[in-house]
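Dock (2R,3R)-2,3,4-trihydroxybutanoic acid; give full complex structure.
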Amino acid sequence: MKHTLFAVASTIAVIGASTAQAERNIVVGHALSPTSHYGIGAQAFIDTLTELSGGEFTGSQAPAGQLGGERDMIEGLQIGSMDVVVTSTGPLGNFVPEVYALDLPFLFRDYDHARAVLDGDIGQELLAKIDENQLVGLAWSENGFRHVTNSQRPVRTPADLDGLKLRTMENRVHMEAFSQMGAAPTPMAFPELFTALQQGVVDGQENPVTVITASKFWEVQGYVSLTGHVYSPAIVLASPILLDGLTDEQRGWFYEAAKASSVATRTEVNRLEEAGVALLRENGMEVITDIDKAPFAELAQSSYSVYTDQYGTELVERIQAVE
Ligand code: EAX
């Protein structure tokens, strides 16, 4: 009898232990290739979470917009159908309008300025705003300074944009800015973009070198103009429904993993900012660098009203004042 009870107790203990250590696979969705700056960041998130949790959590990437465009994936976080998403802030303004401030054209001076803002008080304040909108902002990451590509002609002045059908993100600031700069903005989810360029539905688009190279846009675009018109932040977002079910310790692992993701993505952005333009030339794109940004900035300025009409100029001035 004693032996039987011992055997039963041992079996329960083993089941209990394995249940306690049952792996939970976290899916990290994003719109780019697994080897892109987002893919590298997603993998860093997965590796760090797996290590910190001792295997209690594992992870897998859902890259290339497999689970939808960025706006779809953000909606998925709010309803719990998505776990974690690495996304640009482009569509995020539709959920948290305050974030539009980060997508204002010609606002950030350079990468150091942008990273200082996002890693400082302003970045923390905006993450808190995001948390008030059925999302969890785990960490700021990075997409990069955006440039214009098109299939028609070199763009050096706003007049060269005149009439170009230009795909933009689903972002009211960008749509207004390009409308003022003379293009015909067409908002579109990223997974539809390559085909739209291939079929001539749109003439051009705008994205950082990181995205242009990851998406091989040289196959459908002959010209890239290094306008650097917007610093495009990215962000690691999680579903509050997922995180609400975790302990403080487990939630801490997600925040640490997101920080590791951001470091890995920024490192890749730095690399591609150096090597990426050469890659575009090697693949046949004409790279236009002699661009006077002032006329573009002057025309795009009116797009600030998309944000300042509702929230005033205080945050914009604070961002500009960050050293
Ligand atoms: O976040 O939609 C876009 O142009 C974004 O830059 C891209 O999805 C990476």
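Observed: The longest helix spans residues 248-282.
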